[in-house]
Amino acid sequence: MKKITLISLLFVLSINVHSQLRLDLETGLPFQGYNEVRIPNQEGTLFDFNRNFELQGPVVPIRLSLGFTFGERNHISGLFAPLTLNYEGAAPFDIQFENTLFPQAEFIEGLYRFNSYRLTYRRDLLLSDRWTIGLGLTAKIRDARVRLVSDQLIDQKDDLGFVPLLNILLSYKTERWTAFLTGDGLAAAQGRAFDFFLGAGIPVTNRLSVKTGYRVLEGGADVEEVYNFTLVHFAVVGLIWN
Question: Could you report the per-residue pLDDT of 118-142, keeping only the tens digit for each?
Answer without folding.
Answer: 999 999 999 999 999 999 999 999 9
